[in-house]
């Protein structure tokens, strides 16, 4: 990406000011971005379709994608902090704009939004299991009443 002169190549280079690992073929970043491109990206489109068509598997898949995004973002922050504090290597330019604007805020969005959606999915799944349990209990009570009569 770094050698490209098109719009996306320029965006990649601009973001690399906040995290130079994107220009150095860092193994963690390569692995993380590969998983994102192969798994989370396509699954996100799948979840969007499921939301549109109100598919019953929407919430389990949405929870899976959200957990993957949150986990990846935590690892992204953690590996950078580890290198900073234990190896003395800093990947961000010293200007606050690059650290707080690009590195922190642009990545924190990928914790906040999936966190909200994960909460919503867990809540919806909980309601579904609660309704199923109530229905099962009602059916068992009906069978018991029929046997007594």
Give a verbal description of the structure.
- The protein is mainly alpha-helical.
- It has four helices and no strands.
- The protein has helices at 7-16, 27-52, 58-87, 96-148.
- Helix 2 packs antiparallel against helix 3 (58-87).
- The longest helix is centred in the last third of the chain and has 53 residues, at 96-148.
- The protein starts with 6 loop residues before the first helix and ends with a helix.
Overview in brief:
The protein is built from 4 helices and no strands.
Describe the protein's topology.
Layout lengths: L6 H10 L10 H26 L5 H30 L8 H53 L1
Give the amount of beta strand, in percent: under 5%
Number of helices: 4
List the quaternary state of the chains. single chain
Level of helix content? over 70%
Helix/strand order = HHHH
Largest beta-sheet details = none
Mean pLDDT: 88
Which radius of gyration do the C-alpha atoms yield?
22 Å
Tell how many strands the DSSP assignment holds: 0
Distance between the termini: 75 Å
Q: What is the SS-derived class?
A: mainly alpha
Global shape = elongated
- State the low-pLDDT regions, or none: none
Structural features:
149 residues; mainly alpha
């Amino acid at each position: 990406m770094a050698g490209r002169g098109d719009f996306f190549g320029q965006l990649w280079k601009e973001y690399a000011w906040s995290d130079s690992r994107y220009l150095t073929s860092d193994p963690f970043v390569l692995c993380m971005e590969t998983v994102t491109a192969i798994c989370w990206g396509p699954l996100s489109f799948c979840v969007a379709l499921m939301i549109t068509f109100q598919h019953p598997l929407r919430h389990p898949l949405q929870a899976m994608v959200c957990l993957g995004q949150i986990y990846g973002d935590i690892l992204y922050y953690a590996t950078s902090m580890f290198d900073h504090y234990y190896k003395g290597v800093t990947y961000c330019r010293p200007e606050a704009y690059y650290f707080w604007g690009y590195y922190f805020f642009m990545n924190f969005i990928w914790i906040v939004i999936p966190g909200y959606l994960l909460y919503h999915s867990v809540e919806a799944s909980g309601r579904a299991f609660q309704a199923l349990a109530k229905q099962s209990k009602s059916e068992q009570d009906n069978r018991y009443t029929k046997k007594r009569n």
